[in-house]
Amino acid sequence: MILPESRHVRQARPRLTLQSMSRGQRVIIISAALMIAAAVACGGFAFARELFVVFTYAHQRQVAPSLHEQVAEIRRIAPIGTRFVWLNQHPEQWFSRLWQRLLYPDPVFIVDHGPGSDSVIAGLKRRHSVRFAFSAGAPPIDPGYVWRIQLKPPPGAPGEFWFGELRSEADGPVDGETSTRSTP
Length: 184
What we know:
Blueprint: H1 23-56, H2 58-61, H3 65-77, E1 84-88, H4 94-102, E2 108-112, H5 117-128, E3 132-137, E4 145-151, E5 160-166, E6 179-180
Parallel strand pairs: 1-2, 1-3, 4-6
Antiparallel strand pairs: 3-5, 4-5
């Protein structure tokens, strides 16, 4: 059986290779490939360099030097491995997270002051052995310090910042004022 010929016979396209292109087309394709390779190489190098900077120096460059001095002072009192509680007078996200980052890898539990916050702090002291607390506000709330120091507030921070050791359950009720000291 003979099939009738179709009017639309599909012809195979010639394969496009560098040899089949004109000289101008080859120059353009080779130039584009070199530009893409150079962009990928430069981007990869810059990305690797930026990763090194971010994981090595970024925490030192984004924070005021006065805060690093305060962290060093706190580390003399509370070594790495200590757990902290941060007590806010009003809900805020910036300064508490800044201190959380500065004290990494130690956990900083953030508590907004309000109904039931005293029981939350007591629970943190029992469950997680929290010994030290930060308090921020105008004026800061005293969660039951044995002693406290006033920290220099970060630039732009409203109110005052306190740091101190929390009264333990065994210390009993608070009779008088919290003692303050200039240097721990």
